[in-house]
Amino acid sequence: MAGDNTPTRRALLTGLAALPVAATAAAVEPKKRKPAKPKVQHVDVAIIGAGVFGAWTAWHLLRAGKTVRLFDAYGAGHARASSGGESRVIRMGYGADTIYSEMARESLAYWKALSDTASAPIFHNTGVLWFAPQGDAYTAQSLAWLQANRVGHEHGDVRWLQDKYRQMQFYQGETGILETETGALIAGRGVQEVIADAQIEVERVVMPAPLFSKRIKKHSLPDGGTADHLVYAAGPWLAELFPQQLMGKIVATRQEVYHFGAPQGDTRFAPPELPVWADFNNGRIVYGIPDLEGAGFKIAIDVHGPVIDPDTMERQPGPAGIAEARAYLTRRFPGLASAPLIGARVCQYENSSNGDYLIDRFPGQERVWLVGGGSGHGFKNGPAVGKRVAAHILDAKLAVEPRFSFATKGTVAARTVF
Question: pLDDT at residue 1 above 60?
């Protein structure tokens, strides 16, 4: 089981340095002040974007002994970030996409270690329940990976599901998998905790796209400092910064999540009675997170919404989405059919064409990296993504994973990663 392989806090903090793949006014005339100098004249790496990818990249690079500056226009874990807000799912089952299963397993160890020393939990081990029609290939492939890798889980048919979770309504022919080692992450606070643990300051600076020239040996920063490497991990702002290269390849879409309140004293919709859950049916996912930290029962419909501008989008939920969520609750969670809506949030995904991440150099530039395309499933894998980016900076010869390459990013939406 993964518990025996989880690295200790000390191992994480020390072992990653060798990443393989980081006054009162005076009465006299005041003296003339000298112009303020930048806090650091030169650093190894400047990271633009203090979301989950940028924060973990900074964490790994600092552990590897590199000097780093971290910039974000709005600050860490802010309300407009794809990494902001309340909670995210962390699961390992990814069907045949085992590259993401491996990244999730690796990331879980880092999240758990961070959570163990945080002032409030970042990781909640609720378990994750995945259910789908019998014979679903994705579910069978996920189960096979969990079994082959000895990851804690349970599984069964509709009778098993209904006996185990009586507060839910299942349909004939459904099967389910319960991952017992995974659960939920607290998002905005988690990002802020990564940054605090890295002991780095987030500088609220609007960073433009860099100037590109073969003559440039060091990249200029807004306050006069310089950096050898630039990492743009700007989430839904990536295409805005690099429109010629990424417009249509990284697309921000509007997504709504809702929180409903169970009746007083009804614990059926909170841990340990209910895990994180995901209903997978013909490529459409509805998922939810049990009541964590008093936030209420969370539900979201994982279908890409309209394209938006993350700076100017009005973040008010619409009646159609709320009605669809209520209709789903009536079918699957009848005990919440009349539950009040106690909170809602409008956020965004930043989608690549098929859901694969973007982790590659800017075309033609050896020391400028583009990192993004979280596509709604990236938060959980932040530690593994950051470790991969750091490994590339530490070893210029390390090959880019083809699935994460710039060359494989298209402009036609054809989602294959769930």
Answer: no
- Axis-axis angle for helices 137-148, 98-117 (nearest 10): 60
CB 50 within 8 A of CB 76: yes
**Helix 382-394 vs helix 52-63: crossing angle, to nearest 10:** 50
Does residue 418 sit within a domain?
no
The dihedral sign for the CA sequence 97, 130, 181, 85: positive
Report yes or no on 417 lying in a domain: no
Q: What would the two tokens of residue 115 be?
A: 């959570």
Q: How far is residue 257 from each of residues 286, 309, 363, 382, measured CA to CA in Å? A: 11, 18, 36, 21
How many domains, the chain? 1
81 closest CA partner among 189, 5, 165, 178: 189
Distance in angstroms (rounded) separating the CA atoms of residues 7 and 26: 56
Cα separation, 326 vs 336, in Å, equals 8
Q: Is 21 domain-assigned?
A: no
Rounded to an integer, what distance in angstroms lies between the CA atom of residue 129 and that of residue 160? 12
CATH number of the domain enclosing 204:
3.30.9.10
CA dist 228 and 45 (Å) reads 6
pLDDT tens digits, 232-258? 999 999 999 999 999 999 999 999 999
State which H helix or E strand residue 123 sits in.
Answer: strand 123-124
Give the distance, in angstroms, between the CA of residue 76 and the centroid of all CA atoms in the same chain.
13
How far CA 311 is from CA of 75, 233, 363, in Å, comes to 14, 16, 26
DSSP strands (E only) in 191-305: 202-203, 219-220, 226-232, 251-260, 276-281, 284-289, 297-302
- Where residue 53 falls (left for φ over 0; alpha for ψ -120 to 50; beta otherwise) is alpha
> Tokens 């300051």 map to which residue?
201
pLDDT of residue 214: 67
Residue 412 pLDDT = 94
Pull the structure tokens for residue 324: 């669809």
User: Is 50 exceeded by the pLDDT of residue 25?
Assistant: no
> Half-sphere exposure of 121 toward its Cβ, with a 13 Å CA cutoff?
11
Residue 105, domain extent: 44-408
Q: Would residue 414 count as lying in a domain?
A: no
Least confident of 34-43, 359-368, 379-388: 34-43
- Return the pLDDT at 39: 61
